[in-house]
Amino acid sequence: MLALLTAGVALAVAAGGAQDSPIPGSRFVCTALPPEATHTGCPLPAMPMQGGTLSPEEELRAAVLQLRETVVQQKETLGAQREAIRELTGKLARCEGLAGGKARGSGATGKDTMGDLPRDPGHVVEQLSRSLQTLKDRLENLELQLRTNASNAGLPSDFRDVLQRRLGELERQLLRKVAELEDEKSLLHNETSAHRQKTESTLNALLQRVTELERGNSAFKSPDAFKVSLPLRTNYLYGKIKKTLPELYAFTICLWLRSSASPGIGTPFSYAVPGQANEIVLIEWGNNPIELLINDKVAQLPLFVSDGKWHHICITWTTRDGMWEAFQDGEKLGTGENLAPWHPIKPGGVLILGQEQDTVGGRFDATQAFVGELSQFNIWDRVLRAQEIINIANCSTNMPGNIIPWVDNNVDVFGGASKWPVETCEERLLDL
Predict the structure, then answer these.
(1) What is the pTM of this model?
(2) Structure-derived torsion over alpha carbons of residues 398, 401, 406, 410, reported in degrees to the nearest 10
(3) Which of 119, 235, 259, 303 could join 265 in a cystine, given CB atoms 3.0 to 4.6 angstroms apart?
(4) Where are the strands (E) in 94-237, listed by range?
(5) What is the CA radius of gyration of the chain?
(6) Are 403 and 242 in contact (CB under 8 A)?
(7) Is the dihedral of CA 318, 360, 350, 330 positive or negative?
C-alpha cells in the first residue's frame, strides 16, 4: 500500500510539472505493486468520463486496490490473533499436563510448567484457579475482538464460524479444568482436615497415656516385675533413673534387653556428669560392634543381641588397670584392660535409659537411640563373681543392685516410653 501511495504522489508531482493547468477532475491510477517491489513508474492517467462518473474499468481498479488493502490489514490482524491463540492453546496444554500430574500423585512439591507454586495444596489450587480465570478473561476479550474485527473487515462467514467454534471449544475446556481443580481443592481441604483431626486425636491419646504412666503403675506383681518399652528410634523417648551414682572405683552393671533394631540397637544406657557426657555408655551404633565407653575411652565388646530375643548382659570394670569383662546370658565372652585405668567414676551425674547424652540429661540423637525393651537394670559398686552373674542370668537368684536397684518408683519414663508388667525369666524361656 505504501508503494501505491508513493507511486501516486510521484505521478501527481510529475503531472503537475509537465502541465501548468491540469485537466479538471483528472484521476491518476497506478498499478498496484507489492511492498518489496521497486517502483518504476505508473501508467498514464485515465481520461475522465463525461459527467464526473467512473468508467467500469476505473471502478474495478478502485475495488481491487481497496480489497488489496483490506487483505493486507486482515493478514496482520489474523497473524496477531493466531499468535494469541497459539499462546493460549499452549498454556491450556500445560494446565492439562499439570492436572494430569496431580491426578497421578506425582508429588506436591517442586516446580511445574506454571512456575514455582506454594507447597500447600490449597494454595496450589487457588493459584491455578486464578491463572485459569485470567486465561478465560483473555479468551473472552479475544473472541470479542475477533467478532468486532470480522464484522468491520467483512471476513467470510465460514472463517468467522471456525474462529468462534475454536474459541468456544477452548472456553469449554478451560471451564472444565477450572471445575475439576475446584473439586480437587475441596477434596484436598477435606482430607487435610480429617488428617489433622486424626493426628490431634492420636496425640491427645498418647499424651493421656504418658501422663498415666508418669504417675506410676501399681499393677505390677512386684516392684521389679516390669519393663521399659522404647518402640521408636526418636530423640524424645527415654527412661530416667531417679537415683545417681556415688564415686566408684569398680562396678558391675547388669540388665535384660530385647531388640531387633538394625543397623545397631542404639544406646541401652548412658551416664553423664558435668564436663564428661560419656562417663559410662553402652552403645551399638550403625554397623559398629557394641562398645563400652568410660571417661570417653572405648572398648569393643563381643556381644550379639539384635535377634529380637531376651538377653542378659553384664559388664564389670575396675579402675585398677582398667580391667573389664563382658557376659552374655551368663557366659563370659570377652575381657580386656587399659580402659580408663585409675579413673574413678564421678558422682552426681544423670542415668538415662535408651538415649546417648551429649550434655548432662539432654541433647539426644535419634540415630543413637535404643529401640526395644529393657528390664532388671541393676548396678553394684564391685566386680561380681562369675558364678553370681550366672545365677542372675539363669534366674536362680534375685540379687538387686546395691547402688541402683531395679524398682518401679526409681524409674520415670518420658516422651511416649512406657512401663509394662513382665517376668523376664518366663519370657526368656519362651525365647529358647
Answers:
(1) 0.51
(2) 150
(3) 259
(4) 111-112, 115-116, 226-230
(5) 46
(6) no
(7) negative
